[in-house]
């Protein structure tokens, strides 16, 4: 009896948690009548299939007709992108409109070399942050699983590809978003296209030291709020609210960090096609939608409201059309010139001080270099010989120069073969013997 009771108490394997259509784990089963009402109707499915057929005809097989169609009917493409790219074609279309497909074709095998053979100074930082990227998505949940490995590979490869940028935490959400719609190599080259500016202005300034492009965007956004939403801008000034308190991650991750995923995807469709101005437009549309409530809130509640907007405001079919009505392209350019003018003056003053210091150091050390140059001669083989009172010291050999470069910037294995090293050793020994006999 006791054994049967114990057997009866044994629980079977836990059922998998429900996920939404994008792969994110749901907070509940969503079996309520309201959730059932939100499910797609037969009419909506038919409309989606019609959109897919139009897009397939527009891009051709593997994107072969894309460039021709864009040149022929740019307004049609723009209108369809704003309506949303079909999810089944999103990965391919993103590569086409960003220019990353061309980069991939022009650089065969480069991604594999960066991942396998190169090392990055940011590897530990990447490993530390991987589990924080889309933690509720099934693809990235498993520790050291395929999703986390792919994310690590893409971020590590880019940190090697562009050592000036390296790795910054916000890049994980961009790479993670891309990996949900394409392979590792495709995601890497799309990241390169974005940061290096294959089609639109480069984004790498968002991640460079000091975040210079973030500072510029926040300046522009602050001015736009004051001009287009003056009452709210004045309230922000009174409560000492500035865009860095709520809008930085909008620009760094292009709304991929904390916004509903279906809204982020629609924003990314337009962002890749039209550029960063859509980020400004969506941000202003959010503030405009909640304007009447925001102007009444004190500091603490205002900060919370700016980070957690109401669900009804986040509907892309309502928010994005409002964003498209906000015309800011010309004003953005004017504000960019204004920002650069101010900061160029600051940069020039710093640069002039640096040049003055450099000239003083140069003048002070010229006599030392002159006396040193008189004591040095160079023989026919190019080896530097100090004055007769000092010991002979040959130039750095080719083999040692290669070793020094490898320490500074790792090269691919196999650059120097065993036979090459033997030849270099024989050359060094012959040079040494020649100097000792002379």
From TrEMBL:
Residues in Rab-GAP TBC domain copies: 84-275
Protein name: Rab-GAP TBC domain-containing protein
Classification via InterPro entries: Rab-GAP-TBC_dom (IPR000195), Rab-GAP_TBC_sf (IPR035969), Rab_GAP_TBC_domain (IPR050302)
Keyword entries, A-Z: GTPase activation
Species per Swiss-Prot/TrEMBL record: Saponaria officinalis
Composition skew (Basic and acidic residues), residue ranges: 405-414
Annotated region described as Disordered, given as residue ranges: 1-38, 348-438
GO MF, any single term: small GTPase binding
PANTHER family assigned: GTPASE ACTIVATING PROTEIN AND CENTROSOME-ASSOCIATED, ISOFORM B, RAB GTPASE-ACTIVATING PROTEIN 1-LIKE
Pfam annotation, one family: RabGAP-TBC
Classification lineage: Eukaryota, Viridiplantae, Streptophyta, Embryophyta, Tracheophyta
